[in-house]
Each structure stands twice: as C-alpha cells, then as structure tokens.
Request: fold
Amino acid sequence: MGSTYNHIASELAWQRGKAFDVEDMAVALVKFDNGATLELEASWAGNIAESELMQTRLLGTKAGILQHNVNGTYEFEAKIYQERDGARYDMELRPPVPEVESSAAHFVSALVADHPHIATGEEGLIVMELLDAIYESAEHYCMRGSFLLFIRKKPTL
Reply:
C-alpha cells in the first residue's frame, strides 16, 4: 500500500507560477510472500522536524532493521532489533572500514573501467515494478467505512 503527498511544494510552485511534479512525502507498506514487511518513508517537505526524512524498515519473524538518515542529511544509521531467549537485543550497524565506495562513485567507475555495476538490470526491474505498484496503490485507493481498499499488483519478486 502506498501514499504520496504533494500539497506543500505544489502550492508554493503554483503561487510562483512554476511547474512542480515531485512529491513532498511518500510512504509505502510492502508485504512479501515470505511474510516479511517493508516500510518505506521519504519526505523533504512534510511539516516535520527534519529537513529531509528517509527511513526504511524491514520487519521479519526473526529480526527487524531500521535505516534512517541522520539530522536531515545523507548520512545513514541502521539498527537491527531482535529477541533472544526472551531478551531484546539492539545492534547498531557501523560503516565498514575502509569506507565503502558511494553508489554514485561506483556507477562512474563501472562506466569508466567498463566493469559490471553491482546492481543488475534484473534487480533494477524489480525495484521499478515495486515503485510502480506503490504509485498505483497511491493513485487508486479509496476509503469505505474503516477499511482502506486499494488495487493490488502481484509483484514479480
């Protein structure tokens, strides 16, 4: 299920006579065939404390992970949460040493050195199908009583 919002920036653009077609905020809840749930949230104009909020949660039966940007920047933190023998464990993931090449730098080096990109075309297709399903859900949902109805697209995951 997905929702997108563009009321803040589109209003400002309209007042200034400018075109604008980027969401202020997008959220999605994706349930996978294996029972795992993925929660995505991205906002840069949502009347929130952060200047930009990017957050991803993956919830499973054995553990969950939360990745989010720090203080509205493009630095990220990630934590894993799980239970062992009735006790909660929180683990903070730390960047590897030495630091991993950024995705932009990897893309450029793959082009320049003519070596394969780490993300395959098939993986890109899966991401695009997932994003298309989220946008379709955001566009076609409606409220009836206390139930949210939306169009479901079977992903090829």
Q: What stands out?
A: Residues 106 and 118 are 8 Å apart (CA to CA). The first strand starts at residue 2 and ends at 5. DSSP finds three helices and nine strands in the chain. The helical segments are 7-15, 103-113, 121-140.
